[in-house]
Amino acid sequence: MKTAVLACLGGLLLLGGIALLVLPGPGFVLVAAGLAILATQFDWAKRPLEYAKVKAEQGVHEVARSWWRAAFAVACAVALLVVGVLGLLGVDLPLVNRMSAVLLLLSGIALIGTVVYARVRGPRADPARHRDAGTTVATAPPD
């Protein structure tokens, strides 16, 4: 019973996240959440979850490393927030209803949070040097 419930919940989050990759909303977050739930019960979900973690780490590293990327991400977040607020205020915008306006606001907030996290954390060692698409690379012990 527990496996069936977690499979349904993880599957719904995964499918919703895939849909939100092309629709306004936090698609990647839902895909990762769905994979995380599925990975608790199914081994096949662990590999794409690890891949998603590596890609997220690489994205955070890029934002932390480049002032221009951080500025562009903040500009995109502000645009998401503005369109979301306008949609909630009832301004007639194409393809924006109340639900998509809320999702745009959530996406903008998540993006700003990611940029703040990346910039506060600062550039660390390049995650691609430690992991390559989900596989751990052995490193030599310190001298």
From TrEMBL:
Q: What InterPro entries does the annotation carry? A: Uncharacterised_PGPGW_TM
Domain of life (superkingdom): Bacteria
Please indicate if the UniProt record lists Transmembrane helix as a keyword: yes
Chain ranges passing through the membrane: 66-89, 101-120
- Keywords for the protein's UniProt record, in alphabetical order: Membrane, Transmembrane, Transmembrane helix
Record's protein name: PGPGW domain-containing protein
